[in-house]
Amino acid sequence: xxxVYALGAYLSWGLVVPVHFRLLSGFSPSHxxxxxxxxxxxxxxxxxxxxxxxxxxxFPLRPRxxxxxxxxxxxxxxxxxxxxxxxxxxxxxxxxxxxxxPLVSVALGxxxxxxxxxxxxxxxxxxxxxxxVLAGTLxxxxxxxxxxxxxxxxxxxxxGVDPAVGFLAETLILTPAAFVWVLxxxxxxxxxxxxxxxxxxxTGVTTALPLIWFAAAADRLRLATLGLxxxxxxxxxxxxxVLAYGEHVAPHAIPMFGLIWLALALYAFDLxxxxxxxxxxxxxxxxxxxxxxxxxx
Length: 297
Known about the structure:
The chain is mainly alpha-helical. It has helices at 2-22, 29-50, 68-87, 91-109, 115-135, 140-159, 163-184, 194-220, 223-229, 232-244, 253-280. It is globular and about 50 Å long.
């Protein structure tokens, strides 16, 4: 069952979510973000009330819980960057960002990198450097997506609250700004077209459901398995951008993708090797964890 939940989460993030937001391209990314926050907050409140007996409350509050304001800001920035990438025809950049993300997370979260992880991060950095030299520009969207989400994952790990409560807290923190934006925006929050209304309302569902499935998968699968499966989403994004939306991989990006895939292969090998070593010492499933809630777009 864990594999089913994981596939549901990663296929949603790689296929359903980008197609959903592409259908909303008639609205500005900022407006979609604001409405998404409001609907996600309502959905999160309903989930926490429905599962109140299973949700771990964060009380008594600790000073570290104030970091939820930081994580809320980071996930808000990440969502906006992703929406801009999807609606401006830059799904390839989004795919690249989420390929790089686990390696950035490893670099940020590990006090001491294992040798193979150090090599993987170095190869990925070399790939980006080569692309910069060949193209003369930084792949800013991809790097901003990777950094914002890696920092978000790091902050959430430090906060250490229940995923549902954390998600609710973040959307509540973002709700006042989203509400003001919707009030001042010339774009309708409740459009008269039933199709547009349904698509906007469903942003809360397509935001929250994959997170629930991911949490369910994390409870049932070894972290090494979950860590390897996270590459399903950016691979789907890459295929979607090229096959469905006609984006082209620029010549300067080919060596970058190649080196990043090599880096990810080394990282995956290191995860599997660490998993085998942990099981040999009688600690099943204890491996380098993937970024918490990876691909929360």
